[in-house]
Write a structure and sequence with these properties.
alpha/beta; 22 helices; 8 strands
Length: about 450
């Protein structure tokens, strides 16, 4: 889970504050020392840590905090605000050119996922109604062009290439001409990478930049490399003046050093984060939401957005009607599995829930294939059985188990889960139970109101 070790260390540091009534300057100093160690262990740049601790300490020893009855909560609030500021303050969107096409130059070292994320970014904007084109300008790495073509085919976006051409600048210029002539309003240029920063690489990138005058120059970097990622971003920025950063593999980064350092060191915003291997697992970077995740407060807004993307409006209305009329069947249950799958991994979804302690999930083995097995079980049922699960007797269960390649016990387990889900949904409908009633409604309404306010 992202930032897991950092979240645990910060929570331990906050305990030193929570166990006291009013705080003294000595209490604050001791707590800041723990926070400092937590950030350094997370591979956050030392200068960044030093300035962060200074900012938090100055605010934390103020009279309004030390004399307050809720001083511990206020320190958590200060840390939250300073983390948000450290990562950029607010979401930095991709600049869209007023005169199409918008040209996005994708740069980075080999192995960071540059080619894949070129396709991910194109897919994201294709879903928003754009007509993107990919340009294959990595003429050095074996099979790089073929990889981009495969990615382009997967996301349904055309790829511009020139067979046998060994001039990346020429390919970029002709790709731009092609985009203009054929009505593509976005051009994503996949440039060459290296295993390290070298003069030849930078010279080529500078020539491509001069040739196409890109709207954005994004640096794609592996978040799990920590301080090395920040150093590479700083080096690229000094040579070609980046406009933003894409952090990949953030879903596997338990420390978070790159996410917390790169904005402060380079002065360039993190614009997107890669949260998985799937081609739709790319998210805009929201500093406030990420700070909330780091402090174990969840990320309700991102969870809502994922749900909105995963659920078709018509299907959602139909599901609401079935729940209201208590006609939720196993076929509907099957559809929900697919929607959940579209929202990302189970671990990611759990990590967005407020109050979930990463330490409690550390040793939990989330079996992603469990959904595959449950889908297989339901697909092995007849339409009658899906609509009337109470009619599934012992002989039917045996046949369903054989058809889906599982044991009868797993069929029983699914039917029990379905029954429990049905009861839970009835509680939500009636406003009863831990997830029903006014509390959940107020929280979701508050989150949606905040989202709408930010859009304005």
């Amino acid at each position: 889970m992202p930032f897991q070790s950092l979240t645990e260390r910060l929570n331990n540091a906050f305990k030193k504050f929570r166990n006291k009534g009013k705080l003294t300057e000595a209490d604050v100093k001791e707590g800041m020392r723990e926070i400092k160690l937590a950030l350094l262990e997370a591979d956050v740049n030392y200068k960044v840590v030093k300035e962060f601790i200074k900012s938090v300490s100055e605010r934390a020893v103020g009279a309004e905090v030390l004399e307050s009855i809720t001083a511990p909560q206020q320190i958590v609030k200060i840390v939250n605000e300073e983390l948000t500021a450290l990562m950029g303050g607010e979401n930095s969107k991709l600049t869209i050119s007023s005169r199409p096409p918008t040209v996005v130059m994708m740069t980075g070292l080999q192995g960071a996922g540059k080619t894949t994320h070129t396709g991910k970014l194109a897919l994201m904007y294709k879903k928003q109604g754009k007509r993107p084109l990919l340009a294959a300008c990595d003429i050095y790495r074996p099979a790089a062009i073929k990889q981009l073509q495969v990615v382009g085919e997967s996301v349904g976006v055309p790829v511009f290439t020139i067979d046998g051409c060994k001039d990346a600048v020429k390919i970029a210029k002709e790709a731009l001409d092609h985009a203009v002539k054929h009505g593509h309003d976005m051009l994503f240029i996949d440039t060459a990478g290296r295993l390290h920063v070298d003069d030849d690489l930078m010279d080529e990138l500078r020539l491509i930049k001069e040739a196409v005058n890109p709207t954005e120059i994004l640096f794609v970097v592996d978040a799990m490399t920590g301080q090395d990622a920040v150093n590479a971003a700083e080096s690229f920025n000094s040579k070609i003046d980046l406009t933003g950063v894409i952090l990949t593999k953030l879903d596997g980064d338990t420390r978070g050093g790159a996410a917390l350092s790169v904005r402060h060191v380079t002065g360039k915003p993190i614009k997107f984060i890669g949260m998985g291997e799937k081609l739709d697992s790319l998210e805009p970077f929201h500093p406030d939401r990420m700070a909330s995740r780091i402090l174990g407060m969840g990320d309700v807004l991102s969870l809502i957005e994922k749900a909105q993307q995963a659920y078709d409006d018509d299907k959602a209305k139909e599901l609401e009607r079935k729940l209201r009329e208590e006609k939720f069947t196993l076929s509907d249950y099957l559809e929900q599995f697919e929607s959940i799958r579209n929202m990302g991994s189970i671990e990611q979804i759990i990590g967005m829930l407020p109050g979930v302690n990463p330490a409690a999930l550390k040793d939990v083995n989330v079996d992603e294939k469990a959904i595959d097995r449950m889908e297989a079980i339901i697909l092995s049922m007849t339409p009658f059985e899906r609509d009337n699960p109470e009619q599934i007797n012992a002989s039917r269960k045996k046949r369903i188990a054989q058809g889906s390649g599982v044991r009868v016990e797993e069929v029983n387990k699914l039917l029990k889960q379905y029954d429990t889900t049905n009861k839970l949904m009835k509680q939500v409908k009636n406003g009863a139970g831990p997830f029903g009633g006014k509390m959940l409604g107020k929280r979701m309404s508050k989150a949606m109101a905040k989202k709408k306010k930010k859009k304005k």
